[in-house]
Design brief:
The chain contains 3 helices and no strands. By secondary structure, it is an all-alpha fold.
Length: 86
């Protein structure tokens, strides 16, 4: 056990690595990046769930019966063929 105590004492006496001084900034940047990723993922999941729910409700709720338009699609009352009476 004394060998282990001596080894730990030697490690404790060694100077700290200079890279450890900048470790806090790197860790905090990683935490912020992870938080942003989780926020984006939650937003995407919420949008997907809402789209599925709205689509499902739209398929269940009865709609008004379909009716044909009196004019062809995109034909205006001011179209030349309408104005000339054709």
């Amino acid at each position: 056990m004394n060998d282990l105590d001596q080894m730990l004492g030697a490690v404790r006496a060694m100077p700290a690595d200079a890279r450890l001084a900048d470790m806090e900034d790197a860790v905090m940047m990683g935490v912020a990046k992870r938080r942003d990723q989780m926020t984006a993922r939650r937003s995407l999941m919420l949008a997907g769930i809402m789209a599925i729910g709205i689509g499902w409700m739209g398929s269940i709720v009865p709609a008004t019966p379909a009716q044909a338009s009196p004019l062809p699609i995109g034909m205006s009352d001011y179209a030349p063929s309408r104005l000339l009476g054709q």
